[in-house]
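Progress report, Aim 2. The chain analyzed during this reporting quarter is listed below.
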Amino acid sequence: MTAETPRFAPRSFDQVPNWEADRHGLAFAAFRLSCVRIDRVARERASGGSASSPLRAVCRRALALGETPDDAKAKAFFESHFVPHAVLHARGRGFLTGYFEPELTASRSETDRFNVPVYRKPDDLVVLVPHERRGTLGERMTAGRKTADGMAPYPTRKAIEQGALKGRGLELVFLDDPVAAFMMHVQGSGRAVLPDGTVLRLSYAAKNGHPYTAISRLLVERGEVAREDMSAETLTAWLRARPEEARALMWENRSYIFFQEIAGLDPEAGPLGAQEVTLTAGRSLAVDPGFHALGTPVWVDAPELDVHGHPGFHRLMVAQDVGSAIKGPERGDIFWGSGAEAGTVAGHTQHPGRFHVLLPRSDLPDS
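Predicted structure tokens for the chain:
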């Protein structure tokens, strides 16, 4: 068994660490959001003769149960419809990080202060791989530009920031901080606050197709920051203290994200994830879609992760997002919410963890 060929070993729920102690109703609410999407996509594809999945069968029962079952009913639902599976692989255990939705100061117009553009998806960008699958292809090009000679690479981050797209009317907003803009690209979403107080919800639309490079890893490898000291806060402080070096370092990540403005989202709700459902703080998990289907409930057990003074993290989450750096059968990125406090928690989430993936029972008939 190698790190790339995991085994999913069935277990009973009494073998899942701390299963009894969770707030299962909160997990069910997040799962139901995925179910709405799963059921809608299945109905849209039904005319083409696509077979219904076991997860859709469970989702239809979840939707029939109602929006807010209490913890006891939600727990009973999960136990009667799923079988937990431990994820066994050569690495022995998984690894957890965190992400969040940052809040940034922005302007609709370019000024001396607001001079960092946030671009919408260009018309000539050809997406070669669906968003939810892009993290599975390693160094392969996931988007490009069609030319007379075939598909060509799209401009890199460096080329775009040096003006490759300037003058095409692609600017959504302008930010006043290149480091904050870069970190929003890493997170994949943001809340842009305009001078009049209006808040725009910016969500991932596409990327330029180049592979993602973690510049925090580059700093560790080069001896600039000790591995045990690296966090999002440390990275941000390093970038702001060295503006010229920072620009060159950020350009080493050739990947560039294009955004879209999402209207009508509940101000209290999270951003949209790769499954196109709003993310739930502390319940939404970004996973490697090469191993886990979006919408799958995943029990995350991380005894060393303390949150807000509470020791250990033991919680049922839902696979609702992906990320370029999230690779492997037991690699997860926890969505912690929006704003600075969530950012602090996310930046310090770097802990070992174990998964129990909840897979639908094999004896459930489709309905």
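The radius of gyration is 21 Å. The first helix runs from residue 24 to 45. These observations will guide the mutagenesis work planned for the next reporting period.
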